[in-house]
Write a structure and sequence with these properties.
about 325 residues, Rossmann fold, 7-stranded mixed beta sheet, about 10% strand, binds adenosine-5'-diphosphate, binds magnesium ion
């Protein structure tokens, strides 16, 4: 599609890119505006996600494993793709021969369900490992259908931990204590956080080396990010100086809509190279995988969604070195 043939919806958007304080002396033609290099204007005519693509190195084969890099998938907004990204990034890392532990750290137990585990039937969950001295993480571990990927499941019991931990000594370090003995045998631990910035999430951030922030390509998604970054900074200062933002992951991206392209451009303007170039498109295949109880990499191995998470895994591996 040529730039002249830009979608008519683009017109009000292009007008918006004119600085409000200094009105242009003469209205620019659409062609001139598109050629001007303004990133938001570019978003009108081209897919800004495609524009950023650079080759990602192929992961090297590992001959030994561990200690794990711990990544928390965190965003206090619900429904942005935290759980979906935890499962599918984990499965893609496992395909590259990495040993992966997924931690379901949301009392909803969606991560466990997404891997075919029925959490209400479990006697031991991550809750027991957190709260009971006699229960170790090891006792709670489950194998998943993906070779090389294990799960620490959770269920609604975990919601009690949020309250019970408040009275404990080192209440922010409870998850780090559970994970410590498990780290030597894994390459990656991915923690699926609950949609809040409460004590469970602080525990995840305290246990983590890096945070991956899944961000739905929709205007309101941007509003909570400042608060999340502020929380991450506080945890860095007070509890975990090692913590860093590993990357921002654009999810539910629909390149056909101007809105998604515009939001993506804004995210890149704000966070630059922190934004993963791998972008997860909106597709019905993801809800299907939840029903199937398996990752998209095995449910629809050749699908664009599976390949997007493989690219993300390549980027995650490349960023850690
Ligand atoms: N890329 C996507 N395209 C379409 N639907 C998606 C996508 N990613 C996730 N979903 C669906 O959106 C819903 C919320 O995703 P989920 O991963 O559970 O978000 P969160 O863990 O942040 O609450 C789920 O039903 C999931 O299947
Ligand atoms: Mg979730």
């Amino acid at each position: 599609m040529s730039r002249d043939a830009a979608d008519p919806d683009a017109l009000p958007f292009e007008d918006e890119t004119e600085p409000a304080a200094a009105p242009p002396r003469r209205r620019r033609s659409r062609k001139a505006a598109a050629a001007s290099g303004e990133s938001r204007a570019r978003a009108v005519s081209v897919d800004p996600a495609k524009e950023r693509l650079r080759p990602i190195p192929e992961p090297v084969t590992l001959h030994s494993h561990g200690p794990a890099r711990v990544l928390a998938l965190c965003n206090q907004k619900g429904g942005v793709g935290k759980t979906t990204s935890t499962i599918n990034l984990g499965a893609a890392l496992a395909e590259f021969g990495r040993r992966v532990l997924l931690v379901d750290f949301d009392p909803q137990g969606a991560l466990s369900v997404g891997l075919g585990v029925y959490p209400h039937q479990l006697d031991l969950t991550v809750y027991n490992a957190l709260m009971e001295r006699r229960t170790a993480g090891e006792d709670v571990l489950l194998k998943t259908g993906v070779s090389g990927m294990d799960l620490l499941p959770s269920n609604i019991d975990l919601s009690a931990a949020e309250v019970q931990l408040v009275g404990e000594v080192a209440r922010e370090q409870a998850l780090a204590r559970v994970l410590g003995p498990l780290l030597p045998r894994y390459d990656y631990v991915l923690i699926d956080c609950q949609p809040s910035l409460g004590l469970l999430t602080i525990n995840a951030l305290t246990a983590a080396h890096g945070v991956i922030v899944p961000l739905e390509c929709e205007f309101f998604s941007l509003r909570g990010v400042a608060l999340l970054l502020d929380t991450i900074e506080k945890v860095q200062e007070r509890l975990n100086p090692e913590l860093r933002v590993e990357g921002i992951l654009a999810t539910m991206y629909d390149a056909r809509t101007l809105h998604a392209r515009e939001v993506f451009s804004r995210v890149v303007d704000a966070f630059g190279d922190k934004v993963f170039q791998s972008v997860i498109a909106r597709t019905v295949r993801f809800p299907e995988t939840t029903v199937a109880g398996e990752p998209i990499t095995t449910w629809a191995p050749q699908s664009p969604g599976a390949n997007a998470y493989r690219d993300l895994a390549r980027e995650v591996i490349a960023r850690a070195v």
